Amino acid sequence: MRVVIAEDNVLLSSGLELLLATKGCEVVAVVRDGGTFLDAVAEHRPDIAIVDVRLPPSFRDEGIHAALAARREHGALPILVLSQYVEREYAGELLSDGRGGIGYLLKDRIGRVAEFVDALRRVAAGGTAMDPEVVAQLLARRGGDPLDSLTPREREALALMAQGHDNTTIAERMRISDNAVSKHIGNIFTKLGLAADDSGHRRVRAVLAYLDGTGGQGGRNQP
Prior knowledge:
Helix 4 runs antiparallel to helix 10 and helix 7 packs across helix 10. This protein has 223 residues and is α/β, with parallel strands linked by helices. It is globular, with a radius of gyration of 17 Å. 48% of the residues lie in helices and 13% in strands. Strands 2-1-3-4-5-6 form a six-stranded parallel beta sheet, with helices on both faces. The longest helix is centred in the last third of the chain and has 14 residues, at 178-191.
């Protein structure tokens, strides 16, 4: 797996390089800002990019804008975004095109190597990986959104979907059968109005509904 890293912290980017090398990944470029990141993606065409939310010069949201631009220009390039803090509006913005291949993790998650590498591989394969802390902060939602009709167990299943877990892992975490998970997820799709002809994108759109309360229609939620 070929990786481009956009991270201005030299210690962190060097650590990521070493970690990924031990897991059989090839880091083809390490850059410090959004403009150089876009150039590196165009040159190397990586399998996935790891991008810090805050990059020079203003250290606000340059990384997010660079990630979105790379997705537009390079066919939904898988992106794993790293953030120091939970900035939940960015997760919804990244997922809003409904195509998957997006991860949003707190930097502390890198220290949990197995979890981090698993998330990286899921995103590279076109899935999603939302940090459990981001998901936890979204449990307290405003009223009147499409998720109000979900049962507590359906919300639990959807939260695990938002973290990027497959049905087998969800079954293990919830201590229920695979058939029960399939039933919960089917109910989620029905209640969120995600039609059967939506194919694999239904899981991504369900996660988006969870993140921004729009029923899968996209848009950026306010913090």
